[in-house]
Each structure stands twice: as C-alpha cells, then as structure tokens.
Specification:
CATH architecture: Roll
Distance between the termini: 44 Å
Number of strands: 7
CATH topology: Thiol Ester Dehydrase, Chain A
CATH class: Alpha Beta
Strand content: 35-45%
Bound molecules: octanoyl-coenzyme A
Structural class: alpha+beta
C-alpha cells in the first residue's frame, strides 16, 4: 500500500487552511472529488500574502511516463488550482486558456506545491500565474491561466 501523503512536511507555518472547492459548490469531482483515492489528494491554503496555495499528491493512477505523473494530470491540477485562485480573489470564472511549460518529471506518490498569483484583471479577463514545485528549488511546471468571468 502506498505511503500516506505527508502534507505537513511541506505546509508552511503562515498558511491557513482554506476550503477553495466550496467556492464553486460540489462540482469539482475530477481532481478534488476523491480525497482518499489513488489519483489526486489536494489540500488548499491561503499563504501569508493571501494568495491561494495548494499541496497536491499525485498518486499511482496519475502515471504517464514510468514512475512519473502524466502531463495531463499536472494540467488538471493546474487548471483547478489556478481557476480557484481567481475565484478565491473574488472573480467567478471559467478557464479560457491554460498555457503550461513542463520543466521536470514529477515522481509518483509525492506531494507537490502549487503557488498562485493573480497578475492582472482586465475587464472580464483575469490572468493567474502558477508554479508546480517540490516546495524547494525543483520546478515541475509553470503555467499562465487566462480566466474569463462568467458572472
Ligand atoms: C465552475 C468553475 C470552476 C473553476 C475551476 C476549474 C477550471 C475549469 O476546468 S473550467 C472548465 C474549462 N473551461 C471551459 O470549459 C470554458 C469553455 N469556454 C467557455 O465557456 C467560453 O469560451 C468562455 C466563457 C471562456 C468565453 O466565452 P464568452 O463568454 O463568449 O467570452 P467572449 O466574449 O468570447 O470573450 C471575452 C473576452 O475574453 C477573451 N477570451 C475568451 N476566450 C479566450 C481564450 N480561450 N483565449 C484568449 N482570450 C479569450 C476574448 O478575446 C474577450 O476579450 P476582450 O474582452 O478583450 O475582447
């Protein structure tokens, strides 16, 4: 059996737990829908700057390259977390464009950190930038997410 994800090892002291999925109701089943499952397990927080941050465990069922996460699984996590970063900043949106650079293979059954920043708001367009890392220097992927207000 896989070891349980050690979220506490990566959690920073100035992070406050935050139930980001509840901002959009109960619909986010693809990534956050099975918190005890073998695919994704996520925890959301607000960091010291009030930006949304997530810890994401990539389980064995996210496998793409042997022993490592599928790019689509990283994209799914970035899609949800960066979209919710816009919601958490007060913008009800859907994602219109998600542009990802994959930088380094992400080992299965490890916990990665997603940092987010809302970099601009122009009319209905909210640009959110995100980084998927090992919590230190290791950068797995970085993304720009163009979100479009729907309300
Ligand atoms: C419930 C939310 C959960 C959020 C967390 C999870 C994130 C998700 O997975 S969301 C699901 C994935 N996303 C989707 O399925 C979205 C599907 N697309 C749509 O619904 C529509 O195309 C939508 C809403 C994005 C835009 O349509 P519409 O409302 O007609 O906007 P539209 O008038 O065409 O464009 C508004 C502005 O955005 C720009 N824009 C819209 N789409 C894009 C795009 N893909 N790329 C670049 N710019 C775009 C337009 O150029 C326009 O800019 P400007 O105001 O400067 O002229």
């Amino acid at each position: 059996m896989a070891p349980l994800p050690d979220f506490e090892a990566l959690r920073k002291t100035d992070w406050t737990p935050f139930d980001a999925p509840s901002l959009v109701g109960k619909s986010l089943r693809f990534v956050s829908g099975d918190p005890q499952g073998k695919r994704f397990r996520l925890r959301y927080f607000r960091d010291g700057k009030n930006d949304l941050v997530a810890l994401a465990w990539f389980g064995e069922e996210t496998e793409g390259p042997p022993g490592h996460a599928h790019g689509g699984s990283m994209a799914a996590v970035l899609d949800e977390v960066l979209g919710l970063a816009a919601w958490a900043a007060g913008h009800p949106i859907v994602v219109g464009n998600l542009n990802i650079h994959f930088r380094k293979l992400l080992p299965l059954e490890s916990v990665a950190q997603v940092d987010t920043e809302v970099v601009s708001v122009k009319g209905r367009k909210v640009l959110v930038r995100g980084r998927l890392t090992d919590g230190k220097e290791g950068l797995y992927a970085e993304a720009d997410c163009l979100c479009i207000r729907i309300l």
